[in-house]
Structures are given as structure tokens and as C-alpha cells.
Write a structure and sequence with these properties.
binds magnesium ion, binds ligand C2E, globular, alpha/beta
């Protein structure tokens, strides 16, 4: 009986692994053509100052709409892009498209201070990354200070020395660096001292529990205070309720991002959103999005 179960379990296991690798191969082949077929696009999720009174920028989020597979989540296709090496060309496309979009907005008088672009650890290990980024910025006519690159803690995991060098090169060009999903990865606090990090992005998993869990409250408060002590800014991701926003603002978190403030938007929707909030901020009695 046990042997029978064991064998069934084994069959089930291999079938699942097989289905998974078939899906990955399928995605990899489809992804190879996605760029040239124009299936990739970008969304922009507004980032607010924590008093809710102004939009400080947006996070750039990649979208893939395949004709047969439908919308594929970046959580699923980014790992495929990384393992196949496609991330290099896709990542450059993201940077180029985002900076050119920012150029268009600024030329049309739509005030957007910064764009935050996610950078995969694989891209981060590319030689001459800083030169590539600087080239893309100058092509679009965008000052480096308007670009923020979101890195995860994993960039430092296999070669911390190389990571420090790459960060220093980007920093020297004037690009701002933030640590995404902070608190979930390979956190060696001693590296924070050496990294030229401008901002910590507190992971969504802690924000979700910030009202009901004493542990999450303690973690979030500690991250905010750590950042302050090191002269870094903080942004909370995944803010879904007013109560979470209120808590974060009271604890001194600088910026907020999440569904409660806005979902990720298409470029045209984002421009309209910024215009609407500018009109609001220009009111005689500025109306805060968040209650005082
Ligand atoms: P991330 O950088 O941590 O991005 C935040 C994710 O949280 C986004 O998912 C966003 O849509 C989602 N989100 C925003 N607000 C809320 C909220 O209030 N509640 C909840 N539950 N979720 C919220 P998305 O767009 O599916 O992206 C997933 C991940 O894929 C990103 O996580 C990022 O790691 C990666 N990614 C996306 N675009 C790019 C890209 O251009 N390059 C690279 N290398 N990675 C990317
Ligand atoms: Mg991010
Ligand atoms: Mg994040
Ligand atoms: Mg995240």
C-alpha cells in the first residue's frame, strides 16, 4: 500500500515538474518574439508623498499581453526572461521606453519628478551597466536624478564586492538606487552602510499586517527608523487601506504606493491622473487625499 502511494506520488510529482517546464519553454519561445511583435507595454503606478498631497513619481511595471496566452504576469515571465538571458534586451527596452515617456510628459508640461524602474539581478551583473543606463538617459534627454533603479537584496548575494562597485558607478552618474521588497531577502545590514542606497522600499507583506500584527508593526517601525538613522528615505509598497496609510504616515514613512492610492495605470491614464491631482493641489484650500 505504502509503495503504491509512493509511486503515485512520484508520478504526480514528475507530471507536475514536466508541465511546469513545458510551460516555461512555451513562455521562453513566446517571449523571444514579444518585443518585435509589440506585445510588451508599461504601466505606471503613482507614488505619493505620505501626506497624500502630491505625487512624487511612479513605478514602471512591465506588462505582457500575448495573443493566445493572454496577460502573463511579470512574476511568471521575469524569471523566464532571466534564465534565458532575454532580460538584458527586455530590460533595456523598459528603460528606453520609460525614459522616452518621461521626456514626452515633461515636454507636454506634465510634472513627473521621477520614474522608478525595476532592475533584475541579472541585468545588474552586466558589465558597463552604468554606461548603458547613462546612454539611454542622454538619448531621451532626461537628467540622471530623475531615474531611480529598484534593486532587490539578491543583487548582493553572490558577489557583494561587485555589487558595491556597480552601485558606486550608477551613483556616480547621479542615478538614485532603492532596495525593493526590503526585509524579505538577503539582509546583511552591514552592506547598507557601504551601498549608496537612497531609499528603502518596505515589502508589501509587512504593510498588509501593519494594522493587526504587532510583529509587522515592529518590523515596519524598525525599518523606518533604520532608514532615518542611515539618512535614507522610505516608501511603503502595497498600501491597500486608509488605516495602513495613516499608520505609515504617523511613523514617519516618506512615501506611499498601493491600490488605496492608485492601481498601476496606462501612460495616458497616468498623465490624466497627474493633471487631476495638480489641479487639486493648486486649489485655494488644498484638499489632502488623506485626512489630517
Ligand atoms: P515589485 O517591484 O515589488 O512591484 C510591485 C508589485 O505589487 C506590482 O506587481 C504591483 O502591481 C503590485 N501592487 C501594487 N500595489 C499593490 C497593492 O496595493 N496590493 C497588492 N496586492 N499588490 C500591489 P506586478 O506588476 O505584477 O509585478 C510583479 C513583480 O515583477 C514586481 O514586483 C517586479 O519584481 C517584477 N517586475 C515588474 N516589472 C518589471 C521590469 O520592468 N523589470 C524587472 N526586472 N522586473 C519587473
Ligand atoms: Mg519594484
Ligand atoms: Mg516591490
Ligand atoms: Mg514586492
Amino acid at each position: 500500500q505504502a509503495k503504491q502511494n509512493g509511486r503515485n506520488r512520484f508520478c504526480f510529482y514528475t507530471a507536475e515538474i514536466q508541465a511546469q517546464s513545458v510551460r516555461m519553454l512555451l513562455l521562453e519561445n513566446a517571449l523571444r518574439r514579444a518585443l518585435e511583435r509589440g506585445e510588451l507595454s508599461l504601466n505606471y503606478q503613482p507614488q505619493f508623498r505620505s501626506d497624500g498631497r502630491c505625487i512624487v513619481g511612479a513605478e514602471v511595471l512591465l506588462r505582457w499581453q500575448h495573443p493566445e496566452l493572454g496577460a502573463v504576469s511579470p512574476a511568471e515571465f521575469i524569471p523566464v526572461a532571466e534564465s534565458s538571458g532575454l532580460i538584458t534586451s527586455i530590460g533595456e527596452w523598459v528603460l528606453r521606453t520609460a525614459t522616452q515617456q518621461l521626456r514626452t510628459w515633461l515636454t507636454n508640461g506634465i510634472p513627473v519628478k521621477t520614474l522608478a524602474v525595476n532592475l533584475s539581478a541579472v541585468q545588474f551583473r552586466q558589465p558597463h551597466l552604468a554606461d548603458i543606463v547613462a546612454g539611454i538617459l542622454s538619448e531621451a534627454g532626461i537628467e540622471a536624478g530623475r531615474l531611480e533603479l529598484e534593486l532587490t537584496e539578491s543583487v548582493a548575494s553572490d558577489d557583494p564586492v561587485a555589487a558595491v562597485t556597480a552601485m558606486n558607478e550608477l551613483h556616480a552618474r547621479g542615478v538614485q538606487l532603492s532596495i525593493d521588497d526590503f526585509g524579505t531577502g538577503y539582509s546583511s545590514l552591514s552592506y547598507l552602510k557601504r551601498f549608496k542606497v537612497y531609499k528603502l522600499k518596505i515589502d508589501r507583506s509587512f504593510i498588509g499586517g501593519v494594522i493587526d500584527s504587532a510583529e509587522d508593526q515592529a518590523i515596519v517601525t524598525a525599518i523606518i527608523n533604520l532608514a532615518k538613522g542611515l539618512g535614507m528615505r522610505t516608501i511603503a509598497e502595497g498600501v491597500e487601506t486608509e488605516a495602513q496609510a495613516h499608520f505609515l504616515r504617523k511613523r514617519g514613512c516618506d512615501e506611499l504606493q498601493g491600490y488605496w492610492l492608485s492601481r498601476p495605470l496606462r501612460a495616458d491614464e497616468f498623465a490624466a491622473f497627474v493633471q487631476a491631482h495638480r489641479a487639486m493641489a493648486a486649489d485655494e484650500e488644498p484638499q489632502a487625499l488623506l485626512p489630517a
